[in-house]
Automatic annotation (TrEMBL):
The gene is purN. GO terms for biological process: 'de novo' IMP biosynthetic process. Pathway: Purine metabolism; IMP biosynthesis via de novo pathway; N(2)-formyl-N(1)-(5-phospho-D-ribosyl)glycinamide from N(1)-(5-phospho-D-ribosyl)glycinamide (10-formyl THF route): step 1/1. This is Phosphoribosylglycinamide formyltransferase. It comes from Thermotoga maritima (strain ATCC 43589 / DSM 3109 / JCM 10099 / NBRC 100826 / MSB8). Its EC number is 2.1.2.2. Belongs to the GART family. Catalyzes the transfer of a formyl group from 10-formyltetrahydrofolate to 5-phospho-ribosyl-glycinamide (GAR), producing 5-phospho-ribosyl-N-formylglycinamide (FGAR) and tetrahydrofolate. Gene3D superfamilies: Formyl transferase, N-terminal domain.
Length: 205
């Protein structure tokens, strides 16, 4: 078992975002409802984005990273010292130095069944490719593009009458449902790694 953090109760999370921030809001709501036992310490963004408006509405502290963003991020993470760093639509590849410093303490969510359709516009790519099944992947972050060890995946069958917009809605629904649940398991240390395989102590839905 890999215990990430039992140092503080509740553990503290820093969320990184670059876009809409809907997963950020879902995580905050889960923490406030008690579904996720954690404190959302801060939102860090690398650009002006709607996630900032969500942080203001939710009264969560937020900051925009200064340039160069990687040095700014490194400095702020050292100062904040969170128990977990959660990427929620953060459109940057983290430098190896940060990944190594926070190894097994950075998680990301991706809207496809990796290793299929890594990178940006994954939902659209899957839809245009004509796959029958896609989904979400939650993984630990490494130095690559969506290449870290997979913690959890959930499939979505694409119905023949679905538009791209409908598929996006369905993907976002399961993202918002499962990301807080997986974050909770990671914080509880209810997992271990064998090679590239992340084995959860308990199944998730």
């Amino acid at each position: 078992m890999c215990s990430v953090l039992q140092r503080r109760v509740p553990p503290r999370i820093v969320v990184l975002a670059s876009g809409n921030g809907s997963n950020f809001e879902a995580i905050v709501n889960a923490a406030r409802s008690g579904e996720l036992s954690a404190e959302i310490q801060m939102l860090l963004v690398d650009r002006n984005c709607y996630a900032i408006e969500r942080a203001k509405k939710l009264q969560i502290p937020w900051e925009r990273l200064e340039k160069p963003w990687a040095e700014s991020l490194k400095k702020r993470l050292e100062e904040l010292n969170p128990d977990l760093v959660v990427l929620a639509g953060f459109m940057r590849i983290l430098p190896a130095e940060i990944v190594e410093r926070w190894k097994w303490k950075i998680v990301n969510i991706h809207p496809s069944l990796l290793p299929a359709f890594p990178g940006t516009h994954a939902i659209e790519k899957a839809y245009e490719y004509g796959v029958k099944v896609t989904g979400i992947t939650i993984h630990f972050v490494d130095e690559g593009v969506d290449t870290g060890p997979i913690i959890f995946q959930k499939a979505v069958e694409i119905k023949k009458d679905w538009s791209l917009e409908r598929l996006e809605e369905e993907i976002h629904k399961i993202e918002h449902r499962y990301y807080p649940l997986v974050i909770q398991k990671v914080l509880e240390g209810k997992w271990k790694i064998e090679g590239r395989r992340v084995i959860l102590e308990e199944d998730i839905g």
